[in-house]
Every structure is written in C-alpha cells, then in structure tokens.
# Entry
Amino acid sequence: MTIRQHGRFFVAVAIAAFVVPASRPSAQSPQAAVAAADRWETAFRELPAPANIRAYDERMSARPHHVGSPYDKDNADWMLARFKEWGWDAKIERFDVLFPTPKIRLLEMVTPTRFVATLEEPAVTVDPTSGQKAEQLPSYNAYSSDGDVTAPLVYVNYGRPVDYEQLERLGVSVKGAIAIARYGASWRGIKPKVAAEHGAVGCLIYSDPRDDGYFGGEVFPAGPMRPREGVQRGSVMDMPVYPGDPLTPGVGATPDAKRLAISDAQTITRIPVLPISYGDAQPLLAALQGPLAPAAWRGALPIAYHIGPGPATVHLKLAFNWDIKPLYDVIARLPGSTYPDEWIIRGNHHDAWVNGAGDPVSGMSAELEEARALGELRKQGWQPKRTIIYAAWDGEEPALLGSTEWVETHGTELEAHAAVYINTDSNGRGYLGMAGSHTLEPFINGVARSVEDPEAKVSAWKRLQAATIAQGTPEERNEARTRGDLRIGALGSGSDFTPFLQHCGVATLSLGYGGEDDSGIYHSIYDDFYYYTHFEDTDFVYGRLAAQTVGTAVIRLADADVLPFDLARLAETVKEYVDDVQALLKRRQDEVREHNRQIEDGVFAATNDPRRPLVAPVAEAVPPALNFAPLQNASTALTTAAGRYQKALSNASARLAANTATVRAVNAKLMQSERQLLDPAGLPHREWYRHLLYAPGFYTGYDVKTLPGVREGIEQRQYKDAEAEIARAAKVLERETALVNAAAADLERLARAVR
# Structure
C-alpha cells in the first residue's frame, strides 16, 4: 500500500515563508546559531550515498517478506543491528494480528463455455527473484471473506457509487450477481464494499490494460508496464471504518488485548473478493452480453465491453487460513539534549506483498541511509535538541497494522510528546510529492528549496514548480506562477501516517519522489530488485535525494527553537474548506433543480437509443439550506488568532533561544494544535477517525475528504447530519483558536519583557 501513484505522480507543494533555524546552546548569538545549523545541514546532506541505498534495497528485497514470513523477521533483525551499529538506541516491538492467507482459490466460468482462470504470475527468465514460488504469497485480496458462490457476472466499471447509479439508469442490477470491477479511480477495498451494498454475492477486481498495462507502454520484461498475467495483490479491508488489526479496534494488539471474534470484525468484507489479471479477465468479459458499456467504461482489451448480466455465469470459491501472525516494528531513538520530551517521529514500512524492491524497500532504504548519516553526524558532535524516533513499520500492506498498533499502544505518550510525524513509502524518479498538515506547508517547502534535484540541477522545489506549470490544472498553473507557496495536498489514507494524524492528532507530513517512472508491477511478483534497477531509480540518486530531503526536515524540526508551525496557513486552508462545502451544497442544489426540470421537460422519455437511460429517474427534493454561520464565524476567529500568533512570534524571535521556559510553554501548546482538531466521538459511523478536518473518504478509501463530516453528509444526502457536523467542526476550530491565542499571549509577554 502506498500513496505514491504508480503512473503519473503529482502532488502540489508549498515553499517556506518562515522557518526557525536550529540553534546551539543559548550562549550563542542568533547569527552563530544560524551558521552552526547551516554547517550541520550541509554536512548531513553530503553523507547519504546511492551505493549504500542500493545495497540496502538489494538485501531487503532478496526474498519475499510479507507479514509472518521468515524473511520479514530476518529483515527486522538486520535493521535492528544496523540502527545499533549507527549509534541509535533501538529495539523491536512485537504485535500479534489477524492476517489471513489463501487456502483455496478457484475461479471458473461455467456458462456459456467453460474457462478456468490460471490465477498465476509466471516467472520471468531474466528476473532472478520472480521464480521464488515457494515463498511468494499467491495473488489474493487480504481480508476477503470465505465464500463459494456461482452467479451471473456483471461488469461495474470501477465499482464506485457513481457507477452503480449509472447501472440503475441502465436498468441493470447486481443483486445475486458477481460484480467484476477494474482497478483504478477508487481504492480497491471500496469496490467489494459497494458491490455488497447493492446485493452482489462476490467481486472480482482486474487490471485493465488501459489503466495498467500495454496501453501505457511496453509490458514487463520488455518495458515497465503490467504484463498480461500480472496481478495486483492488496487489502480490501474496510479501512475507512478503522485500520489496523480487525480484532483489536482502538487498542494495541498486545498479548493481553481483548480480541473480537472474527465474525464480529466490522472491517472484513461481506462477500468473497479476488484480484485477477487482464489475461484471466478477458474471457469472462468477452462472454458478457446485455447493454453495451458506456464509452467511458470501455478499457483496452480487444473486445466489445458489455455489462451483462449473462450469459456468463461464474463460480468463485475462496477459503483462507485465518491465522494470528507476529509483527515486528523496529523503533530507534536519538535522545534530545534540550527538549527530550518533544518527539520528531519518522517512519516507513518494511513488509511487502512479495519482494517489494519499490514498495516499500526503496523508501525504507532511504530512511536507513538517513539514520546512518544522522548517527555519523552525532559522532561529529551534533546533538538534536528534540528526541528523534525512527520507525520501520511491519504489516503496512495488509492494513497499516504495525503503525496503527504502535500508535494505539502508545497513544498516551504520543499525546504528551509527539510533535511531528514524517512518513515515506516507496520512492522513484521525478518530482517531490508533499502532503500533510497545513501548519507545516511553509516549513516543508523551505526544505524543498534546500535540496538539489540530481538530474535537473535545480532545487526540488523549483523542479516541482516547473512541473506544476507544465502539467497542472489552469488554477494550479496560475498559482505556481503567482503564489509565494505551492500548495501541499491534504492527507486521506493509504500509508502509515493515518493513525498519527487522524486518530492521534499529530502534525504530519508525507513525502516521496516519483512521476517519471510509470510502473505496472505494483503489488506483483515483479516488484523486485531486477525491475527497480532497470525501470525506476536505476542509480538510486533519487533515493539519496529522498534521504537528503527527509533528513534535512528532521534536523530542522529537531533543532528549531519554536516548532515551525505556520498557523496562518492553517487558517487560510480552513477558510478554503469552509468555502468548498458551501459551494458543494450549492452545486448539489443546482443539479437537483436541473434534474427535476429535465424530468418536467420529458428529457428522460422512453427511447430505443442505447445512449439514453432505459429507466427514467424520478424527481428529487431540493437539498435544504444549511446554517454555515458557526463554521464561518469559527474560521474568521481562527484567522484573527493566527495573525496575532505570527506577529507575536516575529516580535519575540530574537529572544527565544535565551528564554527556554517560554519556548517550552509555546511548544507545549503547538504540539497540541493538531489535537484540537480531533473530536473523541469520531466521525459518523466510524469513531476511530477523530480528525474533523482531514479523513479518508468513506467511499473513496485513499482520497481525502476535508471537513469530512460536513462534506460526506452533503454528498450522501444526509442533510441533518451535515448540519450537526457543521456545529461539531465549529467547536474544534473554536478550541484551536483558544490555543493559538494562548500561545500568542506567551510570546507577547516575552516581547514586552524584552522592551
């Protein structure tokens, strides 16, 4: 699992307006502190070596290392030894989680002709690790339920709610059928979830070559795209409800944890689900009749795409070993000298579906090289002011298992001590992607300006600005030219940042390079060292750049006097989100009015034209007006408080290094600033997600919903719920405003004392 898109990778980012530089003890002048910080950063960025990153990647991806496998534990032990060798205080924390693996996989078409799917990815002669069959997990979807069903097949495009609305207009139902959906456009776990809600008894997910195959270029091994037999493994657990161990929601999966019965776990699918290749999908789709699929639904297979149902009938039989497996999180620390109780945490996962040279080892290898370089810097005399924690998470691929169980176990400590979490996942060639808490938008773009792209020979920020101007939307292009900051994206889910940000309220960044290495081997046996060194970051210079980028961010965060949170940027973003949900409601009202007008005008009259709906829709009630005043007022108050804080910080900045007590008081409040945006009651129907500003969409999975309670209430036509969520969101913004004003008051007292 990863937020890095395997294809065109593009995340808007921003540049620093204010970064508090690191400083040494208070006896130093501010100028000396800045010079010292610059020297340490420069020294650090010289240390990461591509050859080391290559060696780590080759070693860790040498064998399959999924959860519970021998090489997964071997890698954890090896990393533990490396952290200790480099001077870190390191240990392994173990958790025991539910991790099903396949026992029976059978897919066959029984009418109108018989076809048995191979469900097999063949080894490739030139790729030495693709043939490690005895250790590879077969292709499957983790947390699918067991099942044995025979039913008509129905093609549902990407399997999103909007696709089922189209099916309804075409008079096609999946009730009692097996849905076949193509990968893409939404997270894979949404596809069986929505299929089950519409009455399907099973779900197949295939990789269409238009989205993930020869339509994008030559297939592996001749090129980087997914071959005919390639299959995307992956979890289909209902993670928008909660991630982590399905049997221990909200608590760490420690030996003494109370566990649910498997039958009571909310996040296991209600129907059996299986991923297949486009080679296995083609005969099934070719046998379908019924309405011709809309043009936008047609892939790149050499067939006419029909929807069904019939005459294709499919037999799907799945059974799993529902075992408890161990996880091995490697946790390493460098103690802080001045603020040891304030933690900067950085993580990447180490487990893979198979060999995982790209996902995740390319990111994990960069993190290891950062750790080596920071250890070397410490030997030269550098000591971080704040405690730095580096984590190698296990079990990310199935369900963000290792990070979630660690956060749930250490939640009280994190609430008291966690300042920032930085996440990476896979890494490749191209542009720097940045997303996260908008308080950190200016900070991380200051970092992006400080590191050089190895190919373009300009800063990573400058290269991303150029890419935005060349590839972005008209609005993004204009902002890239005129706005001081390039925007960072908001975070939904898809990697290990989720429990830190959305459950625990830790300010978070997610970083990674990519975009010039289109890939079709995601979650397949071909994501290995041979593939990575032929088609992705072939000389590991972008691995080095990733280590330089994240390591620089870690040093600046660890050594800043006041945590470099820009609260004005948060307030600006909140205002945009408030404007967005108001515009969403207006669009919905306008759409319904137009829909009803068309009904009155007879636009949906019966017709033989296959492009027209076969089932006439009915009129809808126009969505009611909602009272957005509480949100608007709270947003305005936050903007005022943030302006006060930024002014107070500027006025007091010259004396911060010499006034540790004030710095501690301000930082204690800043560390709680993200937590003010949590509500202990959580989001509607999913209390594990407590952040009222950012969350994964209930029907999108990875993609973010901002002001999620309000937005999804409108999208799902639950308008009373939306109005209640407006009030709740306003209250967390009011708490945030009070905290920001309190931090500003601390700084104002210091500024007055100086005068």
In short: The chain has three domains: 30-97+324-561, 99-322, 568-754. Residues 719-754 form the longest helix (36 residues). Residues 3-27, 606-613 have pLDDT under 50 and may be disordered. The radius of gyration is 26 Å.
